[in-house]
């Protein structure tokens, strides 16, 4: 490339970048990033009961489905080209306890739902969340001691049981989202020992202690009853630490790594992309979703354009995959 700091200002007119933006065909031809339905993973909420489709107050157009209606919805989104869903359960209060034992119940909501999806839509990729917060009375992702400290190794023992029970039900990927140390390696070992060598691990490797998860915690009634998650989720101010977490999860056997949230962490996505050859996922989280929905409902932004521009920015930053509550809307737009 010739130097463009010529001292003669008229000389600069030799360079006309606008030439490549003149028409839509030209723009399409030189486009560097494309968003495809293949990039999308659709997070979905399942609840007990029948005939239930309840909108989440802080996440308009996003619902908790009972299993019967969830299956119909999954068939629809699969027909739209969405290859994968990430499943999150709404656990009834009476099934929660201090240690999240319901999480590894072979007949629990997640396990039953995974089996039913395997039957109804066998080709869709099912990713299950491995974390205790929907299952604990206190809302934390880990076991706690009397002082309220989050205990790492005892938590990992429960996570391992949970992951194996999800694999037994038919999950294609388990996705540990809790940020305990060493859980990816422990889960990998246990899956292999139980014969689930083909069940993959999507590791929430760089997951930040973020206020952007607020609406999700409404969706699951899973907000922590005391304190915050800062002793396990990462400090939003840190970038090098994200690379450390990514390297550890890869060494422990992760098949794919994730950065979460996405929009306020595009620089992290970019750095993680440089640091690994594994697929990199970004989680366009509930708060990012809610902000766009709210502004669109106020009539302040063009929702469809903002969605596409936002998700494209994540791909441009280096994400291969995007978990997003907009997945169905995007699939309809791209169809
Ligand atoms: C729980 C979990 C959370 C999300 C996914 N899994 C919330 C949290 O860590 O408190 C957030 C997803 C979102 O906000 O869309 N381990």
From TrEMBL:
<comment type="function">
    <text>Catalyzes an early step in the biosynthesis of tetrapyrroles. Binds two molecules of 5-aminolevulinate per subunit, each at a distinct site, and catalyzes their condensation to form porphobilinogen.</text>
</comment>
<dbReference type="InterPro" id="IPR030656">
    <property type="entry name" value="ALAD_AS"/>
</dbReference>
<comment type="similarity">
    <text>Belongs to the ALAD family.</text>
</comment>
<comment type="pathway">
    <text>Porphyrin-containing compound metabolism; protoporphyrin-IX biosynthesis; coproporphyrinogen-III from 5-aminolevulinate: step 1/4.</text>
</comment>
<keyword id="KW-0350">Heme biosynthesis</keyword>
<dbReference type="InterPro" id="IPR001731">
    <property type="entry name" value="ALAD"/>
</dbReference>
<dbReference type="GO" id="GO:0008270">
    <property type="term" value="F:zinc ion binding"/>
</dbReference>
<keyword id="KW-0456">Lyase</keyword>
<feature type="binding site">
    <location>
        <position position="245"/>
    </location>
    <ligand>
        <name>Mg(2+)</name>
    </ligand>
</feature>
<keyword id="KW-0479">Metal-binding</keyword>
<feature type="active site" description="Schiff-base intermediate with substrate">
    <location>
        <position position="260"/>
    </location>
</feature>
<dbReference type="InterPro" id="IPR013785">
    <property type="entry name" value="Aldolase_TIM"/>
</dbReference>
<dbReference type="GO" id="GO:0004655">
    <property type="term" value="F:porphobilinogen synthase activity"/>
</dbReference>
<keyword id="KW-0460">Magnesium</keyword>
<dbReference type="GO" id="GO:0006782">
    <property type="term" value="P:protoporphyrinogen IX biosynthetic process"/>
</dbReference>
<keyword id="KW-0627">Porphyrin biosynthesis</keyword>
<dbReference type="Pfam" id="PF00490">
    <property type="entry name" value="ALAD"/>
</dbReference>
<dbReference type="GO" id="GO:0005829">
    <property type="term" value="C:cytosol"/>
</dbReference>
<protein>
    <recommendedName>
        <fullName>Delta-aminolevulinic acid dehydratase</fullName>
        <ecNumber>4.2.1.24</ecNumber>
    </recommendedName>
</protein>
<comment type="subunit">
    <text>Homooctamer.</text>
</comment>
<feature type="active site" description="Schiff-base intermediate with substrate">
    <location>
        <position position="207"/>
    </location>
</feature>
């Amino acid at each position: 490339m010739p130097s463009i700091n010529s001292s003669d200002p008229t000389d600069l007119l030799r360079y006309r970048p606008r030439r490549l933006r003149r028409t839509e065909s030209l723009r399409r031809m030189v486009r560097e990033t494309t968003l495809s339905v293949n990039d999308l993973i659709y997070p979905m909420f399942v609840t007990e009961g029948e005939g239930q489709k309840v909108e989440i107050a802080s996440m308009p157009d996003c619902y908790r489905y009972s299993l019967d209606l969830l299956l119909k919805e999954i068939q629809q989104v699969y027909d739209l080209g969405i290859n994968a869903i990430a499943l999150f359960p709404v656990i009834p209060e009476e099934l929660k306890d201090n240690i999240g034992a319901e999480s590894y119940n072979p007949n629990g909501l997640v396990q039953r739902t995974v089996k039913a999806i395997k039957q109804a839509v066998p080709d869709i990729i099912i990713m299950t969340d491995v974390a205790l917060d929907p299952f604990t009375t206190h809302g934390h992702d880990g076991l706690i001691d009397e002082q309220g400290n989050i205990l790492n190794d005892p938590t990992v023992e429960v996570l391992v049981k949970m992951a194996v029970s999800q694999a037994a039900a038919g999950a294609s990927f388990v996705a540990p989202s809790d940020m305990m140390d060493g859980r990816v390696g422990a889960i990998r070992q246990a899956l292999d020992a139980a014969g689930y060598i083909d069940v993959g691990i999507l590791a929430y490797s760089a997951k930040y202690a973020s206020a952007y998860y607020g609406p999700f915690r409404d969706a699951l009634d899973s907000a922590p009853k005391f304190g915050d998650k800062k002793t396990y989720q990462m400090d939003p101010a840190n970038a090098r630490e994200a690379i450390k977490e990514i390297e550890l999860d890869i060494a422990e056997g992760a098949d794919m790594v994730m950065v979460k949230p996405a929009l306020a962490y595009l620089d992290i996505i970019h750095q993680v992309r440089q640091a690994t050859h594994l697929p990199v996922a970004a989680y366009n989280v509930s708060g990012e979703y809610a902000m766009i929905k709210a502004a669109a409902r106020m009539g302040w932004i063009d929702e469809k354009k903002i969605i596409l521009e936002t998700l494209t920015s994540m791909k441009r930053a280096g994400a291969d995959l995007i978990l997003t509550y907009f997945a169905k809307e995007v699939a309809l737009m791209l169809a």
